[in-house]
Design goal:
Layout: E1 2-6, E2 9-14, E3 16-17, E4 25-26, H1 28-34, H2 41-50, H3 64-80
Antiparallel strand pairs: 1-2, 3-4
Helix pairs in contact: 1-2, 2-3
Amino acid sequence: MSATFEAGRFARLRIVAGGVASVPIRLAASEAVALGQPAVAVTFAAAAAAATDGANPLAQSAYKLNLLQGLAGGLLEAVSRTE
C-alpha cells in the first residue's frame, strides 16, 4: 500500500493484495472509494467493503473475501496514523 494525504484526505492511494488470487491484485475499487475522502472510520469501512467488488472466488477459497476486506480496512487505518 502507498498513500499520500492532503488536509487529512487520501490524495493518492495504491492498494495491492497478494495471496488471494493467482497473481497479486490491485484493489482499484477500494482506492476509488477512499480517494479524496477523509481518513476516518467510515472511509475505511467503505473501502474495505469495496475490496471484494467483482470477486468470483472458488468455493474452497471464499473465506479469503472476509480476510481481504479486513486487510484493506486495517491497512487504510494503519497508514492514516502515519499521516
